[in-house]
Amino acid sequence: MSIILTPSAVARVRTMLLKRGRGVGLYLATKVSGCTGFAYIVDYADEIKDDDLVIECDDVKVVVPKKSMAQLEGMTLDYAKNGLLNEGFEFHNPNIKDMCGCGESFSV
Length: 108
Hints:
Hypothetical Protein Aq_1857, Chain: A; about 50% strand
């Protein structure tokens, strides 16, 4: 079971949680969506449920529903700033077989 957060992703999650003032970590999941199959869900994790897996990257917890692990196994999550206006999480997922043209969904 592995999902990796780069140092910049860890720093961003820490900053977001501190700013928010609550939460146990980063919630990372997939949902059925789009023309290709799945889309990512990124949110705050306020609790850990019985069907969740918890992965620790440095001191940051990543909470993942067991049902999403098949699509996320081996993924690296990065946080990048591209220029003055563009910044966000980047998903480097080795499981992806196809993506839709707009990049909103993927298949495994």
